[in-house]
Amino acid sequence: MNGTAAVEPQVEILLITGPAGVGKSTLCWELGGLLAEAGVAHAAIESDELDRVFPKPDAAALSALAPGARDVSQLNLAALWTTYRALGHSRLIMSGVMIHVAFDKRWILAAIPDARITVVRLRAGDDSLRQRLDRREAGAGRDAQIERSLKQSKRLADEDIADVLVVETDGRAPQELAREILDRIGWARAA
């Protein structure tokens, strides 16, 4: 032993964003499958599941758990990542609508301070979003979800996208998108 402590690799987060129905979850499944085939260790988390709780905890309840915490998603991500990190993981695939990427990056970095985040924004035309959501949504909330997704798409299109990898999804298979993204960020070569 030479007295030099082992340095853990920096955490790399691939943050997949875009409006509801654009294909974030499907893409994450494809990314995970390709990484598993290549032998690349990783974890995957859908951010929507981090705050699916009722009633939502208020600031006082969150602060009692972790001083300064302002979002239950932050606390749950930190708890999950503690386990994944203890298992030796340094790569995380996350997905979520993430309308305000700068804000979302702050709570993610509060949960995983040593992370480097690569943001991928998926885009699709309005007709594609309507078709995808029409197949996915059912019941009374269908029309409201389609309208909400179209508004999300417009807001995301109007947001500054510096340091964001934008990927068009229209007419492209999830497998093709996953391979392109992994090639562009270099994760597939890690095996």
From TrEMBL:
Q: Which InterPro entries match?
A: P-loop_NTPase (IPR027417)
User: Which protein, by its recorded name, is this?
Assistant: AAA family ATPase
